[in-house]
Amino acid sequence: MKKLTRILVPVDGSTASEEAVRLASTLAALSGATVDVLHVSYFDSETDALEATWLPESVAAPTGPVAQALFDHARELMDAGVQAKYHRRTGTPADVILSFAEEHDVDFIIMGSRRMDALHAALLGSVSKAVLDGAACPVTLVKEQSS
Fold first, then answer.
1. What is the DSSP string of 14-35?
2. Which helix (H) or strand (E) holds 143?
3. Residues facing 28 on adjacent strands
4. Dihedrals φ, ψ of 75, to 5°?
5. What pLDDT digit, counting tens, does each position of 3-34 carry?
6. Is the Cβ–Cβ distance between 36 and 89 less than 8 Å?
7. What is the span of the domain harbouring residue 85?
8. Minimal CA–CA distance to 137: which of 113, 110, 119, 117?
9. What is the rounded radius of gyration, in angstroms, for the C-alpha atoms of the chain?
10. Which residues of the chain have a pLDDT value below 50?
């Protein structure tokens, strides 16, 4: 078995992604692997060429502050001594996650999986399913707990 050196954890602020960070941290503490924490947003205000954006602020707001808050929270969840790197990207989440994993020679992906009803899954697709199907490395999905 290949030595575990890099673990990728995409974060989106969901409780499932928080649990994924905790699991990645535990595995990294045991193996000495580095954790790459990645936040991907579909849009950023910088991606809109017009001064007055056509996208609502909730979608196209600068992602820097959102990503920073997610990264700060991930740091709080990490075990002491775990080496982590934090990355922000813009694009289609599944595509960006898969590209990042390939470019950085990631050994393992751990990510949260949101529960979607059939309609939302059909319309929006499932990022976790696309990553699971497309990744060249092992993927563990952490399911969001139902309330």
1. -HHHHHHHHHHHHHHHHH-PEE
2. strand 139-143
3. none
4. -60, -40
5. 899 999 999 988 999 999 999 999 999 999 99
6. no
7. 9-116+132-143
8. 110
9. 16
10. 48-50, 123
